Amino acid sequence: MCATDINHYLENNQNWVKTVLSQNEEYFDVLKEGQHPKALLLGCSDSRVSPSMVLGSELGELFIHRNIANVVSHTDLNFLSVMQFAVENLGVRDIIVYGHYGCGGVKAAYENNSNGLIDNWLANIKDVIRHHKSELNSIEDQNTRLNRLVELNVLEQIENIKQTSIYRQAIDSGNKLKLYAWVFDFNTGVVHDLKKKYNIKPSIV
């Protein structure tokens, strides 16, 4: 992408500011007072899955953290710090793990080739593959198998959140955190709630 293309984003920004102010002159006055997000969202870094655009959220509605394949790693101080700040400082009670079908990170983990530094990160997903090996091997179509792995990875990250000290301390303090497992489908643009899709009991997700 050339410099001219990048500068186009600045032009878009200026046009957006004009549009926002034409609809609400006090928009930025309210925004600068502080944030009160409704949920913490852990999504994939894939450029095609922008949560704000797909979910139609406004500025300040979602506290967002993104990484390769939406992984909750217990050694990732970045995400753990984000989660702690969201729960303890911002008072967030809803946490969404937001994956997507066609995830390159999930596919790379499944193919198990050498990819360099990222292999250390993908080891988290390889654990998911190992835990669900029988189910995955029973699916003949590879695309369907990878889609199921995407879902299993999202559900596994929900379980990883439950094992964090942040989650446990919140529960022990009487703060009921609600966890959501969502997957975005490029083919339709629809975000699937895995809890409803597979009739998972609320106590699990």
TrEMBL record:
Gene3D superfamilies, A to Z: Carbonic anhydrase
Cross-referenced InterPro entries: Carbonic_anhydrase, Carbonic_anhydrase_CS, Carbonic_anhydrase_sf
Residues given in the record as Zn(2+) binding sites: C44, D46, H100, C103
Transmembrane spans: none
Any one biological process term the GO annotation gives: carbon utilization
Reactions accelerated catalytically: hydrogencarbonate + H(+) = CO2 + H2O
Chain coiled-coil ranges: 122-149
Pfam families found in the cross-reference section: Pro_CA
Cofactor(s) listed in the protein's UniProt record: Zn(2+)
Cofactor note text: Binds 1 zinc ion per subunit.
Stored SUPFAM superfamilies: beta-carbonic anhydrase, cab (SSF53056)
Tagged with keyword Metal-binding: yes
Keywords: Coiled coil, Lyase, Metal-binding, Zinc
EC number: 4.2.1.1
GO molecular function, one term: zinc ion binding
Function of the molecule: Reversible hydration of carbon dioxide.
Family: Belongs to the beta-class carbonic anhydrase family.
Protein known as: Carbonic anhydrase
Organism listed in the record: Aquiflexum gelatinilyticum
